UniProtKB/TrEMBL annotation:
Residues 48-83 are annotated as: Disordered. Pfam families: CbtA (PF09490). The keyword Transmembrane applies. It comes from Planomonospora corallina. The chain crosses the membrane at residues 7-28, 90-113, 125-142, 162-181, 193-216, 236-254. Residues 48-79 have a biased composition (Basic and acidic residues). This is CbtA family protein. InterPro entries: CbtA_put.
Amino acid sequence: MSPRTFLIHGLIAGFVAGILAFGAAYVFGEPSIESAIALEEAAASGHAHGEGARAHGHGNAHDHDDARDGGHSHGDEGGVSRAQQSTAGLATATIVIGVALGGVVGLAAAFALGRLGRLSPAASTALVAVAGFVAFALATWAKYPPNPPATGSGDTIGARTAAYFGFQAVSVLLAVGAVVLGSRLARRGDGWLASVVPAVGWLVLVTAAGLALPAFDEIPGDFPATVLWSFRFSSLITQIVLWGTLTVVLSGLVRRTARAAAARRELIESVRA
């Protein structure tokens, strides 16, 4: 099987995964986003209403409506309505991300083929995808869980972004090192060491990296915990659906292609015999 075959399979699997991830994000994530936006708008409206009341000595319905319209608006930002953001925009984002991830995982699976002991093409592909989920998505989610709208400080966005992607890069590089170490130990015939030592080593090193990087606790004290954890949980569910679908579809396509190639080889050998 050529890298091109893995790449095409990865793009197909990523497309399917992106569609299903959109469904998960819409069903599980959008309610918590709407709740967070409502809280932000209510806070902005209440603040503006209070300022108007202090300036004029009283408040009225007209002042409140003006304050609401002049506050943070998520219904039409840059000509894109909130409905478009939560449907077409969200679908586009998840599909693009899914296709991109599928291509990367497909190429990584092509590179790993034959280098992970006696694993079959489908099994080694599944292992690469699972390792990608743990290193790229799960570890980063655990260190820097996503926050709902209006809960982060604009002053630290640069530092938060650098720390997020820095930790993600370290986690992925350590995962690659763990896979390489596991493949070398597997060649020596010790399956237990090949599976346990790299996994434990990655966990220890990525934990140390997480402890060394800064933490950002910028959630307002009065922000509802249920909304926060609902948002974070829905984000994790979306990642699980995305990577799970990618793993199943990609390994399934690889398995079918490998079986077809094996059947062709057997047919050629039988004809020559």
